[in-house]
Write a structure and sequence with these properties.
Structural class: alpha+beta
Distance between the termini: 64 Å
Helix content: 10-25%
Number of strands: 7
Largest sheet: 4 strands, antiparallel
Strand order of the largest sheet: 4-3-6-7
CATH topology of the largest domain: Immunoglobulin-like
Strand content: over 45%
Number of domains: 2
């Protein structure tokens, strides 16, 4: 009898732990879509448009108030017929000493599926860095 109670208790703890983690990672307040759960970065917004063979991209990184600087590096990749992405262009790290970093760039491309990836390093006031990679894919 004691073994069954202990086993049931352990199972309940494991199930509750899994539920809490899944809920925390699935949504942000007021949103129904899957959102990442970052600690010091509040938002990353990426977009791409294409006109006459030129992709123009923009990126916005917003940090929480405990951020003293943001660095972002952007990479544009094209999906090959075999589904693998290969690098088209990369832009040097852009840095700001505030909580917001706005970036943009362009590249000459052909038709296809493209992915814009940003690697962010947010410097925290109390020390340390939060590193995040996010991406956006679009077909032109």
């Amino acid at each position: 009898m004691k073994k069954r109670i202990i086993t049931a208790g352990i199972c309940l703890i494991v199930i509750l732990g899994m539920t809490t983690t899944a809920t925390a990672a699935t949504t942000q307040q007021g949103s129904e879509e899957l959102q990442p759960l970052w600690i010091h970065v509040a938002n990353i917004t990426l977009s791409m448009t294409c006109s006459d063979g030129n992709i123009t991209w923009s990126g916005l990184v917003q940090g929480q108030p405990d951020i003293i600087g943001v660095t972002a590096t952007y990479t544009l990749e094209k999906r090959n017929p075999n589904g693998i992405f290969t690098e088209v262009d990369t832009w040097p790290s852009l840095t700001t000493d505030s909580t917001i970093l706005v970036s943009s760039g362009s590249a000459t491309v052909g038709q296809g599926s493209y992915r814009l990836t940003v690697t962010v390093e947010a410097t925290i006031k109390k020390g340390g860095v939060e590193r995040i990679t996010d991406s956006f894919e679009k077909t032109f």
